[in-house]
């Protein structure tokens, strides 16, 4: 509300004016409630229990409404949806880890690749852009997402051709084309996995929204793990 009040009057929008919002790591606040003194200890104990329940209820209600401002969310999503060197490098690293995991039939490597992959950022940019009708944000996220998908497909295509040519043809190792498709490759090509993936994607999307609005990045790890087990 304070930011909207200031920006409506030109602070932060006019030339040579700046407004910033800095998070406070810790603060102290007095409740101002006076202690009740009573001769009856039972009544004092019951009053403290009632106050404790009311305080817990108020804290819970505050946690429901305590969310980041729209400007904070949009700026964070916009930064994650931009195409830069870090995005390209992480995409290539994640593609290499995923390719090795698919060839080695290792679900752990596939999960690790999804945790490294930054593809969730452009998807969030597209989603938030649609919600707030920010077409520039949608365009940025869509461009970055398409570039990331193109890099993943190209890297996987050339990596597969290379390993098929130089791989173990005897089939004694798990790196040869004679052992393909393995169980991990087959599991990502079944029709049943599509509707199961859609059911998993609904609560995962809700978890992403709560994590972004509440500033809780720990939930994104679980979402990435659940997404790594789904078909492409």
UniProtKB/TrEMBL annotation:
Keywords from the named record: Membrane, Transmembrane, Transmembrane helix
UniProt-recorded name of the protein: Laminin subunit beta-2-like
Source species: Tropilaelaps mercedesae
InterPro entries named in the record: DUF389 (IPR005240)
Keyword Magnesium: no
One Pfam family recorded for the sequence: DUF389
Residue stretches spanning the membrane: 83-103, 109-132, 144-166, 208-230
Origin organism lineage: Eukaryota, Metazoa, Ecdysozoa, Arthropoda, Chelicerata
